[in-house]
Each structure stands twice: as C-alpha cells, then as structure tokens.
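Quick one: sequence plus pyridoxal-5'-phosphate SMILES, need structure tokens.
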Amino acid sequence: MSKFALAERVASLPPYLFAAIDKAKAEVAAQGVDIISLGIGDPDLPTPEFIIDALYEAAKKPANHQYPSYVGMLQFREAVAAWYERRFGVKGLEPKNEVITLIGSKEGIGHFPWAFINPGDLALICPPCYPVYATGVKFAGGEVMELPLLEENNYLPDLEALDEATWKRAKIIFVNYPGNPTASTATTEFYAKLVEKAKATDTIVVSDLAYSEIYYDPANKPPSVLQVPGAKDVAIEFHSLSKTYNMTGWRIAMAVGNAELVNALGKIKENVDSGAFNAVQEAGIAALQQGEPFVEKARAIYKERRDATCEALAAAGIEHQVPDASVFVWAKVPGNKTSAEFVTDLLKKTGVVVTPGSGFGECGEGYFRISLTVDTDRLKEAVSRISQL
Ligand SMILES: Cc1ncc(COP(=O)(O)O)c(C=O)c1O
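Reply:
Sure thing.
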C-alpha cells in the first residue's frame, strides 16, 4: 500500500471508461489483431485546412505568446455570439458577460459544479450520459440523483417523476441532446418544459450541445435550449468546436447563457487555469465564421457512414436506433450477455472496439455504442465481425 493515501474523491472514482478501453485495446493490438476502433467519439476527419492556416498566422504574432485572458478573447466571444444568432436564432447574447471561452467543454463542464455545489447539494443527471457531469458534482462534494433516459420515453427524462421537494433541493440538472451515448435528440417543446420546471424550482439547467452540428436532416436541426424564451434566466449551455470542426485535440469550446452562471464559471477558471491559447481562439474565430461549407461535407460523410452501419446492423438482426444526429449509433446487445461481457468478447475475438452501455450508467445495461469515426468500409467490416460473434 502506498503511504500516499488518495483523497476519497479520487479513490471512489470508477475507472475512466475510455482509459480502461484503451488499455484492453492495447493488449489485443499487441497480439497482432487488426483493431477497428469504434469506441470513442473522436472524429477521424482532419481539421479543415483554413483553420490550420489561421492558427499558423496567429501563432506567429508575439502578442499571442503571452498569457491569454481568463475568460477568453473578446473577438472569440463575439464570434460565438454571432454564430449562436446565425445557427439558432438566439439573438443578443452579450459577449462580455454571457459567453466564456473554455479549454474544451469537458473542462467547463467539470469545473462548473464547483461554482454552485456545496457538500451535500444535489444535482440531477440523466443517464446513460457523459460521465463528467457526475464526476464534476462529486468532486465538489455534491450528491447525484439519476433521472434515467429510457427507450420508451424517446430517451427524454420524465420531469414529473420527481416530487416538488426534490426539484427544489436540486441545484443543477444536466441534459445533453443530441445525446452521448444514445444519439437521441430533443425538441424545443421539451426544452420549454424543462425551463418552466427549472424556473419554478430555482434549478440551474446545464445543456451540453457538443454534437448539435452533426445532424442528418437539414430540415430537423437540433435546437439550443436558449431558443426557449426566458431560458437565459436559468440556463447555461456548453458547446465546443471539437466535434463540429474536427478539433478535439485543439481544446477550444465555449459556454453561453445566464450571465451569473457564466461569470461564476469564470471565477473558478481564473483560479485554476490561465485561458485558452489566443492563437487557437483566432483559429476558432475562423472556424465559426467560415466553417459551414466544411461541416456540410463532414455531415455527408457521417450520413453515408450512418446509413451503411444501420443497414448492416439491420441485416444482421441487431436492434438499434437510426440516429438523427451525433456521431453515434446506440444498439442492443444481441443475446443474453451483459454489455461489458459482450464488449470484452467482441474485442478479444474480433478486434472490434465498441463502448458498453453500462459504462454510461446502469440504465445503459444491455446496449452498446458505436462511434462513426472510421470510414464506411471499416464500419461495414466491423458490423460483419460483430454479426459473426
Ligand atoms: C457529450 C459530450 N460533452 C462534452 C464533451 C467534451 O468535448 P470537448 O472537451 O472536446 O469540448 C464530449 C466529448 O466526448 C461529449 O461526448
């Protein structure tokens, strides 16, 4: 035993899902198996060249070599506000107080609870979901209560399942549409009900919109919670350039919404980090202003992949949802295995890496998640191997 006892908040953490998968994958790859990795939602497509060029130019400016602003360059925040207006019709976001730059949205989501959660405070999460919501709350000493997302409810939480007292106790609710891992989407009607509930019970709505730009039907674009009139009274929304512009490695994202919530997050950040590299923010401005034609092409590629994958899954008799958005397909584990057994077996016997649904919460048991982050032929090959297991 080490003489350095881990803090309880770390000792009690489950292994970070993707770190555990990476380790198992490395072991199988070491045996010479051809691995097809559909485990993590990390776009394989390259960052568009004009964004790289913008970074190169910005990196040459000496002023950009110094500490950036804690809350981000005003020009980046202005570009975010303008993008929100163009994309979502959300008008009047005030760049100085209602937009903050993040070093990736994971950082912002993980830090946000520190601003509002005292030990023992309650936050609501909607599993199966991105693990960082719960971890951020627990790091701040808070408690997490689950509002599970069920297939029969179209993976929307049942807001009436909790009594008034619980809603009043809850300081935050986290929602994520298009959802990771379920790929489900929400409507503005759902967001309107959520905002109404949150207003009535003084609950903060945290919306995670990281996947909004990967949609398959332009007539049905995923909305922002901020489209609901009055949402800004209670909501903060996290968004990211990671998935939209294939920039996961760049670490550039934003949070927008209620000024008190945005400024409180800024208060935490100014004490623990020193802002995002200005050159990356300048490249981010280029992405937000000129990126749409490139995203359009990426959508077409994901659509081809989604269609090929879903057709192959259907032909193999594997139940799944055909997603309207996101880079994921959420499918049912065939047979009687648990998600973890299925995923481990699949990796060992076929070299295909997928993510067990149970890794996103108990209610993800019986499902697995496929990431559409390899080319169509490899996806078809992967489903063929899955069907032979
Ligand atoms: C639902 C969701 N939110 C947020 C993130 C974080 O993205 P980033 O930190 O790259 O902005 C991810 C990453 O996979 C995600 O799946």
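The longest strand covers residues 170-176. The mean pLDDT is 96.
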